[in-house]
UniProtKB/TrEMBL annotation:
It holds the Pfam family Rieske. PANTHER family: PTHR40261, RIESKE DOMAIN-CONTAINING PROTEIN (PTHR40261:SF1). InterPro entries: Rieske_2Fe-2S, Rieske_2Fe-2S_sf. Residues 18-113 form the Rieske domain. The keyword RNA-binding does not apply. PROSITE patterns: RIESKE. Keywords: 2Fe-2S, Iron, Iron-sulfur, Metal-binding. It comes from Halostagnicola larsenii XH-48. This is (2Fe-2S)-binding protein. Coiled coil: none annotated. GO terms for molecular function: 2 iron, 2 sulfur cluster binding; metal ion binding.
């Protein structure tokens, strides 16, 4: 595996929450930084872009791990539930919509970004106060 595409150790991905990291879409001429999340569910590892499908600027993991219940990731803004293993929204204002998947692989205890459509920037959320304030707002019903 390409060491420049190592996201983190598998052990660093929590069982009942998410691990956030930063990527750039290689097809995006603007080179906008986006966030993605890793989630472990029943021995499987999945990776999704870190944005709700109700309002797509709203983050599921706001920097300290997304809330989860019974294998579903919860958007804390308006209560949408997304299956951690399929990404489908099972309840809430965007029911039936899917999170955007990224390809990852585990090799020798480490997680790698194998999705050719994204470059890896590193672990952790985008460090901007402006984005964080927007994603914690509940005023957009
Ligand atoms: S922004 Fe996620 S449910 Fe409304």
């Amino acid at each position: 595996m390409d060491s420049t595409r190592r996201i983190t150790a598998l052990e660093a991905v929590p069982e009942e929450s998410t691990f956030v990291f930063r990527v750039v879409d290689t097809d995006d001429d603007a080179n906008e930084v986006e966030e993605a999340i890793l989630v472990r569910q029943d021995g499987r590892l999945e990776c999704w872009l870190n944005y709700c499908q109700h309002f797509t600027h709203i983050k599921l993991d706001k920097g300290t791990g997304a809330a989860m219940r019974n294998g579903e990731i919860i958007c804390e803004n308006h209560g949408a539930y997304f299956e951690a293993d399929s990404g489908v929204c099972t309840f809430g204002p965007c029911e039936g919509a899917y999170l955007t998947a990224l390809e990852v692989a585990v090799d020798d205890g480490d997680v790698y970004l194998t999705d050719e459509g994204y470059d890896l920037l590193g672990p952790g959320p985008i460090p901007t106060d402006e984005v964080d304030r927007a994603s914690s707002s509940n005023v957009e019903f």
